[in-house]
User: Fold this.
Amino acid sequence: MPPTPTTPDSFQSATRGGSTTTSKRTVLRGRSSSRGTKKPPRVGRRIVGHMWEFTVLGTFVITAAVAYPAGMLERRETTAVVSDSTWQTVGANCILSGHGDLANCSKAELALVAPLVWAALGHTLANATSVAHNRTSLNLTTCLVGASRGYGAVVLLLAPGDAPTCAPTKMESVAAMAMLETAVNDSSEPSYLLSIYVDSDNATWTPRIDFPAGAATSVAPLLPKFLVADDTGHVTPTKSTHANWLYSSSPLGSRYTLSYSCISEVVAAPASFYQGLWSNQPLAVGWTCGHVIAHSMELLTWHILLAVLLYGALLGDIITTVVGMQGLWGGDPVVTYGIQAGFERRLVAFGIFGLTRVPFPLLQEASRFYFRSTPDVAVFGMLSFVNCSIPLFAMHWLVIVVQRCPSIWPCRVLRIVNPIMNIVALVVGMCLTSIGDNRARYFDPMWSRTPLVGFRIHDLVFPSGILARNSPTNPLFVTLLPQYVVAVSVGLCVGLVLPRLQHGRWVADLHFFQQNAFLSQHTPFVPSHVMGLPLSHTDCIPLGTKLVVRASTLALLGYAVVEAEEAKVSTTNASIQVMPKQPKQPTTGATTVLVISMYDLPVALLPIKPYRPRVLGTIHDYTYTPAPRGTTLDRTKRYVSTKGTCVS
Assistant:
């Protein structure tokens, strides 16, 4: 049951949102009673609640501040693939002659590619290695890399003595190392890509710098590469930077297309069990992979501008909350409300809030390529947390539309606890999409689809760099959308059930909107069907024949309360500029405060105002009086924000 005080003193001590003003007749702060009844745990909960509001609002800024420096707009890194137990031996008895013939090869090796291609590989390897040794033949071992993932490459190891093994346990010497993948030529025709490293005693290495991490990896420079036609075996030299593993995605449209590719490398890897026969340098195959987003600086600029606009639109809420928190530890009555809960009536701010989320599906699309380190996994989780707010944002707009539709039960609505619903949905969405083997869920399926051309392994085609043109991959956000919808549904259920558990009823009665002068004049409509605002008739307090709402209700509905700075020492109210006529001045000693839009509060507090904020009305002794049309604040006066006041 709501309290029913009979005096202004008892009325004020029972509210959470009180005025900082005083009169000669009453002391509105009620300090003695409030300080005696406030308990530190409650104060702590309210402070934590306010800080949580700021944290949620700042989540996208924190996520962007982490994702952009992590290279989600552009990134490049070189990795070595060191031989281990996952490497499979295709054959270890093949012999490469000085003329390019391949003898004693296993059936599995011969089945990898077409006979013409296999013969072309032998001649190309012989021509490349003949300069580095004077031997008539080399032993060749064929290894399959990535079989456990369902995609990868074929590594060819050549040595003059014993044939190298695919999963050595001790250091082995190789005279040459080659990697065979698939790619497309300049005419976009499928081909095999052969990259060859031939060891020598004067082998040189060049650093490959990761971006933006800055780590350096030594790689063999100008690695000879050849394209082998998959049907004729025709061999064509190509540039050392020829790329494959191509992928592109445009979740935000073609202007901001994400392009990903890799370049095969031979890396100086200290952890490898292979070393050059003459250089004694540890060797491993690897790739330099990365992505770039078209017009990324434009996207970043728009994102920064949207962030500035959002916090500009919410600056009034932030000021009101900070002013209110100043009295928490002292036990003073303060305005307590949730910024998230008020978004329902702050459509401009809420719209900007949604726009700030638009770039994140593209950033998440980039993050699917990087799961090597814990920070990379954390970035993906943060992006997933933010992206879950997109379907949540759509659901909020659905609520906004539904509550404007006619209802057969006017003024009776289902209550949703928006802040709890939001956090439950976001956390559940992040858990559903980010816990587990993310590489197996989001990276591997991109490359294990049907290839244009591949390697024949056990009657299956093994993908290795290019995919069929008719096997597109959906943007990751589209793939995750069903899980996000489940998360939002869970949050909605919690948000609907919580009022029932807290108050013992499913619906809120909004007839009190018609019994309060301020609400009846400054509420464009009474919500129908469903509502996210934490409002109820229990938030109103009878004061004689009046029905009074708390200061937090004004803030929830998007209104702020200010007073002229001199009003603290003078009871004369001359703080508004009126057009076309001056309203009647109050004759009592109580201070009159001015009601303005929350959007205008930051401007109202400036010493020099770029424009005159509109005054909606005045509150004097809890009584609301609407201001004549055209009433604005005086540019020459200074105003201060108050901790709010109750209004009838």
Remarks:
- The first helix runs from residue 8 to 13.
- The longest strand covers residues 282-293.
- Residues 1-39, 569-582, 584-588 have pLDDT under 50 and may be disordered.
